[in-house]
């Protein structure tokens, strides 16, 4: 198993010392929460947009040592070195109460499955079980001699397991509050290092308790007898410091003091993948949906390991055990739709003043009354814990309800699929807001627009990369608070969201040059706000929160208003074309975004393209736009660049993958052309550049994510695919220009040059195939050569490599194509219309009557003919052959000088082809002035053409000269 590098980004400052950090997901996988014992703040991150600044909660006076979320993710609890346990609403983060206090630092907190009890423990003597209904202490469990560092409620609601710093594990019965099992010295002794805490965890079905062992392993104990069942022992060379079960219980992640994470298949009892880190991982959390593991190290850096379980295996969230306690709807403090506290007030333990938060002294219900609550209160008012199951029925109860609860949980999981977060709208080339720092409103291949807030307003500057050709645009004072912009050679457009009822969303356009004064214009929107803006030739576009696409002329005339199918994600313009990306539906259960794109031609009022936008699984869209040639392109958060092509009826081709580049770098895309990706390189974990110092554009080669070839010729194979794609794009442009009656001469020349380069690449691949003994592949490649001289060079090459059988096969292919060229002319003098894209023209040699037949392909998948223009043909093929011959090894060069049978082969070929030429006669010019179906075909002058006989005669002469040498 090969280790992979995971990029981590800083969430908390370490201060140079190791700390215990916590990380966890919410129920819907919309937020990641982190904390550090060296930092008094709690950070709430957006996992889809990790570059955005997190929401920060600061209510503790000292480092935060523990975090816990209620089962329905509406209540957040935190424990701290300041001895307090605090509660917050979630995801809003509003502080609610100090639920309890200890006399020493707190190390661990945990909710039970129903959310009715919060357990808290630490350096104090005793584990507090707190009633989350009214904040009272339901019970204190005493028995540990060391600091309690790990707590885990049994999923069936019967037991609580705890572990301390000296390695003692205790299993408590919640109903009587007594210790059922005490296992001394089975876990490592962590000593005084507070960045290493012993932990333990119940399997999701509640049948097994996992505890770090003394032999760098994980030991499994039976839930009822506490007997050792088995252990997981692998390549950890130091003790395990954290473990986490996958949601379905099939896998387990373990982190060791050896700075590596292992993923285990629990049933097979073996590790299936691993990840090494620069620092020790102290906490992990499996993503509730999909296949990902969040991790955080002792320096406060966190990251998400995507595809932690190999994709060939069962997903860690598939087949989650159907366990749910009877109070699973949650005896929780806050309802999701509750905006304010109920009139009954809030619970409090000691009425502590926490940085100014005032609390009523009495403990009362925080959530609104319901029929369910009233029925439940009758049991709770006497004793919360009397409603817990009896020990005698623990196994029967858990199994008798299992089948009936499966259907109930299935419905719950179906409902959660609609909870997954859809990606927010973003402006291509913009960076997130950074307090007191200048940021980009727009950055593209032309220039940039930057802004910085100062004294309640913003200062906007427009700069062009080429200061010599771009206009000089004066700086602008922004009183609207613009947050997005777009830039092209004609002007710039700005927009801002709503800021209350009085400050409506505003769209403003500023042209760079105009013949009239006061050509700047603006629009204001009532009860809707602009989400994305785009510019093109003589038009401005804005997409709003009402899913309206609004098109304006550059003079400010409102031209079109179009309703889109879903919420906008982003948009981009290029000349007459506007591309818009919207959400097609809710996210998949794997949290994959479902996006679609539409391309509008503004001048024609048409929609030439529409379809789904592919993304890498688990990623979101981070850039969208057009290449310099006008090719629609996208880039996702996993670092994959895709370009839309007309091939295969319209497909997206992956032309770049950041995973193939340096793992310590992130790439912030600015644009691309036919061969290069233009981006700003950011050192991980940074995802975007700062305005100062001025970013430097880096050019990266486009490259398909090819599989590892058995030839080791991935570079040539990649060039081969790219050149073919390039030809396809040129062909499409030629067809479009020809249909419009425009001159295509320059594109014809460009296509010819690409064909020459493609032949050189194919010759290199043929050489690699011959050296690797892949002769069938070499035969396939020779059929793709586009020029006569290239085929002759391939024959010469394989002959020099002492492959006479392959040389004979190449000769046969060459002769068959010569025959196929002449056959249509002998039977029909009318122009032939071959399958476009599957046939090309063949160069014929001097004759008394010029000819240029069009060849129908005999092998649609692996065939190609030859260009005309003999001068360019010979020059291009000669360069290609010389490069191939120079790239051969010393042995091959020696063999070239020793080959003597080439003359014989050529003589045989000469006599054979002379007979064919005499029987065929002269080739008629069937094409005439009719344009060949293949747009890359080149018309030749009479002096450039020759007969088939002369071509074969010339081959013999070349062979004789070679044999003499």
Describe this protein's structure.
The chain is an alpha+beta fold and 965 residues long. It is 20% helix and 31% strand. It has twelve helices and 51 strands. It has a four-stranded antiparallel beta sheet with strand order 1-28-27-26, with no helix packed on it. The protein has a four-stranded antiparallel beta sheet with strand order 2-3-4-5, with no helix packed on it. A four-stranded antiparallel beta sheet has the order 6-7-8-9, with no helix packed on it. A hairpin with a 5-residue loop joins strand 8 (84-89) and strand 9. It is globular and about 100 Å long.
The biggest beta sheet is recorded as: 4 strands, antiparallel
Number of helices: 12
Radius of gyration: 36 Å
Question: What's the β-strand tally?
Answer: 51
Rounded mean pLDDT score? 78
Structural class: alpha+beta
What distance separates the N and C termini? 54 Å
Helix content: 10-25%
Principal-axis shape equals globular
Low-pLDDT parts are 324-419, 829-949
Walk across the major sheet and give the strand order: 1-28-27-26
How much β-strand is present in the residues?
Answer: 25-35%
Condensed summary:
This protein is α+β, with helices and mostly antiparallel strands. Helices cover 20% and strands 31% of the residues. It contains twelve helices and 51 strands.
């Amino acid at each position: 198993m090969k280790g992979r590098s995971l990029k981590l980004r800083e969430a908390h400052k370490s201060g140079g010392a190791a700390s215990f950090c916590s990380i966890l997901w919410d129920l819907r996988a919309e937020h990641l929460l982190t904390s550090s014992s060296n930092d008094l703040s709690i950070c709430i991150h957006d996992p889809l947009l990790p570059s955005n600044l997190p929401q920060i909660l600061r209510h503790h006076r000292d480092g935060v040592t523990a975090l816990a979320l209620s089962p329905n993710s509406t209540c957040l609890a935190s424990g701290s070195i300041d001895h307090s346990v605090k509660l917050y609403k979630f995801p809003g983060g509003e502080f609610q109460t100090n639920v309890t206090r200890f006399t020493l630092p707190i190390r661990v907190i945990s909710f039970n499955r129903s959310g009715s009890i919060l357990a808290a423990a630490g350096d104090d003597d005793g584990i507090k079980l707190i009633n989350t209904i009214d904040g009272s202490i339901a019970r204190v469990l005493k028995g540990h001699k060391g600091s309690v560092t790990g707590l885990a409620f049994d999923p069936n609601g019967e037991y609580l397991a705890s572990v301390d710093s000296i390695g003692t594990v205790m299993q408590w019965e919640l109903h009587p509050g007594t210790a059922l099992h005490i296992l001394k010295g089975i876990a490592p002794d962590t000593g005084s290092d507070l960045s290493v805490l012993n932990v333990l965890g119940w399997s999701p079905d509640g049948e097994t308790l996992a505890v770090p062992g003394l032999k760098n392993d994980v030991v499994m104990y039976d839930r009822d007898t506490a007997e050792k069942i088995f252990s997981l022992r692998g390549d950890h060379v130091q003790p395990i410091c954290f473990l986490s079960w996958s949601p379905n219980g099939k896998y387990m992640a373990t982190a060791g003091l050896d700075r590596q994470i292992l993923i285990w298949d629990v049933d097979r009892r073996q590790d299936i993948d691993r990840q090494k880190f620069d620092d020790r991982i102290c906490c992990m959390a499996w993503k509730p949906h999909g296949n990902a593991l969040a991790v955080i190290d002792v320096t406060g850096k966190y990251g998400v390991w995507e595809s932690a379980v190999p994709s060939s295996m069962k997903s860690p969230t598939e087949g989650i055990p159907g366990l749910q306690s009877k109070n699973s709807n949650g005896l929780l403090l806050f309802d999701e739709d509750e905006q304010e506290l109920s009139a009954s007030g809030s619970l409090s333990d000691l009425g502590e003043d926490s940085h100014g938060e005032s609390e009523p002294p009495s403990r009362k219900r925080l959530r609104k009354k319901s029929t369910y609550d009233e029925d439940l209160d009758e049991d709770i008012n006497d004793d919360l814990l009397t409603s817990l199951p009896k020990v005698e029925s623990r196994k029967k109860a858990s199994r008798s309800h299992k089948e009936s609860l499966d259907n109930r949980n299935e419905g719950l999981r179906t409902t959660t699929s609609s909870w997954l977060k859809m990606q927010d709208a973003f402006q291509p080339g913009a960076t997130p807001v950074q307090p007191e720092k200048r940021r980009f409103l727009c950055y593209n291949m032309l220039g940039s627009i930057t802004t910085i807030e100062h004294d309640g307003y913003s200062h906007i500057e427009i700069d062009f990369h080429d200061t010599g050709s771009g206009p000089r645009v004066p700086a602008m004072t922004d009183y609207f608070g613009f947050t997005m912009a777009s830039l092209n050679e004609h002007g710039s457009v700005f927009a801002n969201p709503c800021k209350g009822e009085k400050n409506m969303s505003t769209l403003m356009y500023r042209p760079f040059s105009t013949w009239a004064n006061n050509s700047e214009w603006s629009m204001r929107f009532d009860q809707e706000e602009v989400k994305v803006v785009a510019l093109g030739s003589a038009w401005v576009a804005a997409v709003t929160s009402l899913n309206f696409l609004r098109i304006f002329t550059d003079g400010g005339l409102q031209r079109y208003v179009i309703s889109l199918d879903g919420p906008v994600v982003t948009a981009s313009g290029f000349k007459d074309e506007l591309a818009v990306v919207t959400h097609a539906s809710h996210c998949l259960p794997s949290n994959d975004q479902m996006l679609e794109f539409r391309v509008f031609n503004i001048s024609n009022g048409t929609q030439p393209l529409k379809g789904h936008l592919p993304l890498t699984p688990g990623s979101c869209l981070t850039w969208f736009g057009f290449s310099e040639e006008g090719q629609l392109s996208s880039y996702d958060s996993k670092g994959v660049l895709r370009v839309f092509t007309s091939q295969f009826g319209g497909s997206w081709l992956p032309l770049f993958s950041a995973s193939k580049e340096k793992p310590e770098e992130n790439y912030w895309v600015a644009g691309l052309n036919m061969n290069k990706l233009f981006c700003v390189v950011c050192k991980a974990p940074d995802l975007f550049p700062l305005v100062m110092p001025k970013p430097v554009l880096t050019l990266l080669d486009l490259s398909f994510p090819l599989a590892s070839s058995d030839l080791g010729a991935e570079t040539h194979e990649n060039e081969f695919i790219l050149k073919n794609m390039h030809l396809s794009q040129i062909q499409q442009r030629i067809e479009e220009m020809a249909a419009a009656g425009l001159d295509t001469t320059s594109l014809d020349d460009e296509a010819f040059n690409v064909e020459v380069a493609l032949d050189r690449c194919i010759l290199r691949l043929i050489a690699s195939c011959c050296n690797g003994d892949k002769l069938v592949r070499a035969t396939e490649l020779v059929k793709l050569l586009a020029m006569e001289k290239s085929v002759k060079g391939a024959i010469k090459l394989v002959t020099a490599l002492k492959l006479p059988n392959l040389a004979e096969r190449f000769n046969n292919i060459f002769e068959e194509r010569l025959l196929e060229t002449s056959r249509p002319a002998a039977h029909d003098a009318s122009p032939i219309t071959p399958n476009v894209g599957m046939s090309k023209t063949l160069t014929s040699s001097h004759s008394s009557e010029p000819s240029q037949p069009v060849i129908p392909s005999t092998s649609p998948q692996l065939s190609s003919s030859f260009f005309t223009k003999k001068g360019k043909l010979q020059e291009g093929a000669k360069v290609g052959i010389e490069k191939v011959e120079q790239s051969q090894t010393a042995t091959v060069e020696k063999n070239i000088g020793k080959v003597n049978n080439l003359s014989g082969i050529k003589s045989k070929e000469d006599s054979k082809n002379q007979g064919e030429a005499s029987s065929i006669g002269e080739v008629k010019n069937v094409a005439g002035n009719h344009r060949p179906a293949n747009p890359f075909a080149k018309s030749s002058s009479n002096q450039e053409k020759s007969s088939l006989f002369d071509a074969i005669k010339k081959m013999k002469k070349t062979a004789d000269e070679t044999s003499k040498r």
